[in-house]
Amino acid sequence: MENIVVTGKSGAGKQPRIDVLVNEFGLVQLSTGNIFRHYLGVFKKLGHGKAPEAYWDAARGAFVEDAVIRADLEPACREKGVPVEDAVLGLKAARFVDAGLFVPDSITNALFEADFAKRSGRGLILDGYPRTPEQSRFLLEAAGRFGTRIDAVLLVDNDDEAIVARTVGRRICPSCQKVYHLEFKPPKDGRFCAACGTEVIQRSDDTEEKIRTRLAEFQAKTLPAIRELENAGIPLVSVPGNLPVFTDEAVRESVMGALSKIK
């Protein structure tokens, strides 16, 4: 396996399947959420005086030239030891995220490609990307540029109501990112990460209203993105999000059994 896309509705149960791929194939998880947090963090670290909106040309509906942004950010980047290109990407993402706006595909693609390139486009589990047909097309182009391939799409399938019930009970370790569930995989003493001892938290977007919004977005955007990859000849295999017996071995057998069907 060079690269594999793991997709599914938000809360379908992707992480346990990703853990199997990490253990079985030695792949590295490349999460869009973590990518955004990294580049946003780089920009915030600068403590730059100007807001990202200052670099937005409303008349053109686009940012000013990158050279202008670089010139402004470079002194702070040198002082903080931050790569200026990372800071530029972080500023662009922050302009949309801080305003609660949808981040355009062009920005998401640029953030993704920056991390994809750092790993030479190989040995990755793509988690949360692609989410739109345009992102799928960009991924295929990027794989071609790096001389690599996407071996499969693993779809974790689950019922909407099961996802709502699962997600509102989800808890995350803010230190090591391990995922727990109050009923199905409870943290230690109901509060602490079994791996590092940090008190687990509920993500701010794990509310029923926001979950149902994400489920609708999956139907409208992510399913067409999956079809785009299928149409390009990438094998699609599906695994159930719910299993009769939910153990690490049962999850492993489910994933490996599905992948064994790829010719």
Give the strand order, joined by hyphens, for the main sheet: 2-5-1-6-9
Radius of gyration equals: 19 Å
Q: Under the CATH scheme, which architecture would be assigned?
A: 3-Layer(aba) Sandwich
Tell the overall outline: globular
Low-confidence stretches: none
Order of helices and strands: EHEHEEHHHEHEHEEHEH
Task: Tell me the total number of β-strands.
Answer: 9
Class by alpha and beta content: alpha/beta
Main CATH class: Alpha Beta
- The mean pLDDT is 92
Could you please say which CATH topology applies here? Rossmann fold
Per CATH, the superfamily is P-loop containing nucleotide triphosphate hydrolases
Distance between the termini: 13 Å
Strand content: 5-15%
Indicate the percent of residues in helices.
40-55%
- Compute the number of helices: 9
Largest sheet: 5 strands, parallel
Number of domains: 1
